[in-house]
Amino acid sequence: MEEALASYLLANAALADLVEDRVNWNARPQASASPSVVLTRIGGTRGYTLAGPSALVDSLVQMDAWGKTFASAVGVSRAVETALSGVAATVGGVRLQGSFIQSERQSYEQGSGGEWFHRVSLDFIIWHKEA
Known about the structure:
- Helix content is 24%, strand content 51%.
- The chain has a six-stranded mixed beta sheet with strand order 1-2-3-6-5-4.
- The chain has helices spanning 2-10, 13-19, 70-84, and strands at residues 23-25, 36-49, 52-67, 89-91, 94-110, 116-129.
């Protein structure tokens, strides 16, 4: 699911216009340009039937939109929301069957190099079928 989700986001023209190829899993590369998106799978549940695994998974994915200005972080978060809300697509053999925002929050944080960044975090529940 991880590769499929990143590919899906990077294929979205409105988001790619803002972040280019800066969609990463788990960490924002040190000294990377801004704005950017960091994805983190923070939970999930695998589906089962009486016959065994169903291959259906609901993953809880935190998507952090980072920007040097509040406007850039919010703009990226809105592009992510537009790209993912209610998604139904197959990418790289993974079926993304639905995506729904669970929560949202904002912060202002200092990076490792001393610069300050705005962050908008969106938690999505993403239903997907494993390849």
